[in-house]
Structure formats: structure tokens, C-alpha cells
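for the writeup, i need someone to sanity check this before i put it in the appendix. the sequnce is what the collaborator sent (i think, or maybe the updated version? ugh). structure was predicted straight from it, no edits. if anything looks off just tell me and ill rerun, i have time this weekend
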Amino acid sequence: MTLKVFEDNTFVAQTVAAAGDRRVLVVDAGGSLRCSMVGDNVAQAACDNGWAGLLIFGAIRDSQVIAVSISACRHS
């Protein structure tokens, strides 16, 4: 499933609050670093609701306390 958002993670939080059925959520936030798309609460909701993973083109926060592996790539 893909969400296209910009500097607002409301739809991301709403989406991971629903059953993920082992799907991967792709969030296209346009690469913006001004608003995080995922923090520890959203990541925990994704885990609790059965999402297999999150792929974020944008910012995340709380990476030190998110209990999953995080990979980061930079584009130019």
C-alpha cells in the first residue's frame, strides 16, 4: 500500500492503526525533512497491527527507541 503525503503524518498514523495483514506500507512524503512521518508510537502501532514493514521517503524520529532495524538511504 502506498500513501502520498506532505508534511503531515495523520494518514500514516490512521493507516497503521488498521490491520496490516503482513503488508508493507510505502510512504512518499516527497523527501521532506521538516515533518517526521514515523516516530516510536506510529512504529509500535504498525508492529501491533501486523504491518510487515514501513518504507519512508521522508523523515522519521525516535530512531533510537524504535525496536526494529532501520536502514537509511540518501538521494540527490
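Residues 2-60 form one domain. The beta strands are 2-4, 24-28, 36-38, 53-57, 59-60.
thx in advance!!
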